[in-house]
Amino acid sequence: MSSKINKLPGIKLKEKEMYSLIGLVEDMPQAKYDFAAGTTISKFLEGLKEGKILGRKCPKCGRIFVPPRSYCEWCHVATNEWIEVPQTGEIHTAVITYISTKREKIERPEVVGTIKLDVPGYRDGEYEFAGLFHKICVDPQDVISGKAIGMKVKVRWKPKEERKGNILDIECFEPL
Amino acid sequence: MGVLMSRVAIVGVGWYGFKPTTIDVSFQDMMFESSARAYANAKIDPRYDVDAFVDCQEDMWEGIAISDEFAPEPIGGALRPTFTVAGDGLEGIAHAYMLIKTGHFNVVSVESHGKPSEIKTLQDIYRFALDPLHVRPLDYVNPLFYAGLDAVAYMKRTGAKREHLAMVAVKNKNNGLSNERASFSTRIDLDYVLSSSYSIYPMTNYEIAPFSDASITFVLANEDYAKKLTENPVWIEGIGYSTETGTGATEWHEWGKMKSFRSAALMAYKMANLNGNPQVDFAEIEDRFSFMELLALEETMLVKEGEAHKMLEKGDLNRDGFLPVNPSGGSLSMGVQLEATGLSRLLEAYLQLTGKAGNHQLKNVRRGLVASWRGVPTYTSMVALLSV
Q: What distances in angstroms separate CA B243 from CA B174, B177, B240, B247, one per listed residue?
């Protein structure tokens, strides 16, 4: 189908001409999006505003998804039941960060990690769990010593009047 | 059956959306809805019965870098072979076809979605598709220019008049009235279009497809599985895709033609052991700009060069005509769903061939052609030839 090109059009540049042409053309994307949270995540965010953590249960395998999902990725069926889950759990793993998202040094190191929530019906031995990825208000030294892992924690909410229905309504998880 | 001899069929489809906005669902919810419907349609469990998953999307449309990481979960592909094609859904169908032809995959699913309603700066993203070095700095440039440039050159070459372009819009906007997915169908006549102001000469707003949100999932299978799974397999006789040039080299583009359609069509026809016009009963053909329907009909060789506008004028392309083109109402009626647009046209062709097109069902159709373009400012086209 393709025909052979014997001679490319255009003028061939000499090496000297080539390297005298280097320049930079600056431009910036204007990219703005409004991500629809959908009915499921919307209800979760409304729950946070009210100081509740809501999950969804899969009717087939019984897994409870926090954050909630409209579907169970393991069974590929729609989840169909809302469950209010406990606001306590344990630190599954944690990390101390000394830099920001943009890799700039930050004043005070922050601890972030995943919290495995005390969710009933969770099956032992499975690696996935109902939980949240969030900031953890513990001494970074506890992460270094290993004391933080497995530590019992609970949600520290923002004051009610400051909550906006987003994930930052939870200030962090703090030791129980 | 020998692997190379085994044909590839579509055995199920699901869709969600085709609406100007879909605030009720996240993009993942939408993917789940369409894929769950496709698997139900094919009567399979994706967690056991699908051997590989193909997803088609583009990061800048998604608003997520490395968005292929988000692909597997909603479509049933977690911890299963899944990959993303950063292109139109029909290119994903071609990849699924190839996977099945290797003999290592019996059943493969293909999902594509577009949620343009969530992109607040859609035209800026389009602008970002322009060559950064010598096109973007011309700040009056709009990617729609490319469609206008091709339209003018096409009219000059073929003798098609401005009225013919308007006729395409009238036909497709009215065809869509009996299609539940055609959110932008409307009862208009020629005078109405001709008396509207131009958006990009020679086209008015009625001749430029708007955007809609949708997710579409197809399930493909090899011949043995297709026969087991459905009584109505739709065979992919041939599929082709081609890219001519990027926006950094449009000076090389042959204006008023679409070589990528020609190459993609030749590739598909060769696969089907055909030489030239495949003699289809109907076609779902690119029409996101009115003139493209006429141009694509000629470049895919369904009609002779310069004849498309004459056939249109005679009514040959009407739903009851000699060659029904876009009985669904096309993109002018259904909108453009970004990378899912090709699958929206494949969906219409599939429904026609299985007799499930509802109010816009054609009679006695056994072979159809789908030809889709990735839209401005691309020169990428895909062609699929289907039969029952």
A: 32, 33, 11, 12
pTM higher than 0.80: yes
A60 touches chain B (CB under 8 A): no
Q: What distance in Å separates residue B263's CA from the closest CA in chain A?
A: 7
Cβ contacts of A36 on chain B, cutoff 8 Å: 22-27, 115, 118
The CATH number covering residue B43 comes to 3.40.47.10
CA distances from B212 to B113, B118, B123, B181 (A): 10, 10, 15, 10
Q: Is B28 on the interface with A (CB under 8 A)?
A: yes
> What three-state secondary structure class fits B93?
helix
Kindly determine whether residue B128 and residue A71, on different chains, have CB atoms separated by under 8 Å: no
B122: nearest CA partner in chain A: A31
Angle between helix axes B144-158 and B162-175 (nearest 10 degrees) is 120
Please give the residue range of the domain that contains residue B112: 8-120+212-229
pLDDT tens column, B66-82: 999 999 999 999 999 99
Distance CA B375, CA B126 (A): 10
pLDDT digits (tens, 9 = 90+) for B187-234: 999 999 999 999 999 999 999 999 999 999 999 999 999 999 999 999
